[in-house]
Design a protein that fits this description.
Rossmann fold; about 400 residues; Peripla_BP_I; alpha/beta; 12 strands; disordered N terminus
Length: about 400
């Protein structure tokens, strides 16, 4: 018994100095970011289910900060994201305030023109993450070296849908485009996709937006009753492609066309960055966490903001640094990748700073397919079959 007591006390005498010599914990390092949402006046959507929630994008930011902090707390890293709402008239002033505070990462939710203006205003003082604007020009002639795009481009969305339609052998398209500039830009992307993958646009028509309330009874009746006659006598086609970024007519195409044909594009089968019905690749757990946090399903803007802030968090983890220039350098390098719950790692295109990502093809209830489709191969990444590839780019940093 005495021997055992002596051994125990000896053990205590050895361990006590070790505890006393433990290093003090490192101070917490903070990574600051901001989400700037520019809300322009628009008409109400056709369906009340599509009414934008007040926390659109910001809910995605909250989830991203939670996810970043889960890892960050073990590395003495703390993540913060300010949430700023602006109008097109006040956006520049709000951005100036963020720059004055030294915020190095700014996620924007704005249209094409506003995104370019904000990027030019920032210059080299911060890194912009475009989480809404889809214009191919932003990744082309109007590209900016200080901007990363987590929102997929029109070309990526159109190519994702085109690959699926060609796999289905639905290669004759009836293209209906709206009259707004972004409708025209989306229609251009579908024309390009048709040429790229061998489809034929057998006929094109333009649906003119004459204004008025789309949520009133007269608005419903006007557009709904127009669709059968508007689509009458079209050339033989396999599928109707809608290019309707402003939700003027697209939702009235399914079940209202003169000929019984499937509808895709802005209605029916829709190419998307995210779908609230995706369950594969850990997405169900991801969806559940978001819905518990926000009390609603995730939208594209939420996902794209989440993705931008997760890129920052992933870079901080991988580099074990909170230094903004170091994080930027790593995110733009060929070593960077981030998980996006879409079946494969997402990486950066160095020629236009577009984040490579699969495109989901979704209906209201299910994700019907995910592009790139298996039969479309590429010498470096199958994801580069979606959108503007290196040899095609007009971007010059």
């Amino acid at each position: 018994m005495k021997g055992r007591i002596i051994i125990l006390l000896a053990g205590l005498s050895v361990s006590t100095p070790v505890i006393a010599q433990q290093a003090a914990p490192k101070p917490m390092q903070t990574v600051r970011a901001a989400v700037l949402r520019v809300d322009a006046p628009t008409l109400l959507p056709i369906s009340r289910l599509d009414t934008p929630p007040g926390d659109l994008g910001f809910a995605g930011a909250k989830l991203a900060i939670n996810d970043n902090d889960t890892t960050g707390r073990f590395m003495n890293q703390d993540f913060q994201a300010l949430e700023i709402t602006a109008t097109p008239e006040t956006a520049a002033a709000e951005l100036d305030k963020l720059l004055a505070e030294g915020i190095p990462f700014i996620v924007t939710l704005a249209d094409d023109a506003q995104t370019v203006a904000l990027a030019d205003q920032v210059g080299d003082r911060a890194l912009i993450f475009n989480a809404r604007a889809r214009g191919d020009n932003l990744r082309g002639a109007d590209c900016r070296v200080n901007t990363i795009h987590t929102a997929p481009s029109y070309a990526m969305l159109a190519d994702g849908l085109a690959q699926f339609l060609m796999w289905k052998k639905w290669d004759e398209w009836f293209l209906i485009a709206g009259s707004h500039p972004d409708d025209i830009a989306l229609a251009d992307a579908y024309r390009r996709a048709a040429t790229k993958f061998g489809a034929k646009i057998v006929e094109e028509r333009t649906y003119e937006d004459t204004g008025g309330s789309r949520r009133s009874d007269s608005g419903y009746v006007q557009v709904q009753q127009q669709m059968p006659v508007f689509t009458q006598d079209a050339a033989r086609h396999d599928v109707v492609i809608a290019a309707d970024e402003n939700s003027v007519f697209g939702d009235w195409l399914p079940y209202q066309t003169w000929d019984p044909r499937p509808v895709a594009g802005s209605a029916g089968l829709v190419p998307r960055a995210w779908s609230p019905n995706l369950e594969a690749w850990g997405a169900l757990q991801f969806q559940n966490r978001f819905e518990k946090l926000a009390g609603r399903t995730m939208r594209d803007e939420d996902y794209q903001v989440w993705l931008a802030l997760r890129m920052i968090g992933e870079a901080a983890t991988r580099t074990q640094s909170t230094d903004a220039p170091a994080l930027k350098e790593f995110m733009l390098s060929d070593k960077f990748e981030v998980a996006g719950f879409k079946g494969q790692k997402l990486t950066m295109r160095d020629w236009d700073h577009q984040l490579r990502q699969p495109i989901l093809l979704a209906t209201d209830s299910v994700t019907a397919s995910v592009s790139p489709q298996d039969q479309y191969l590429h010498q470096s990444s199958a994801l580069d079959t979606l959108g503007i590839d290196r040899p095609e780019t007009q971007c010059k940093f």
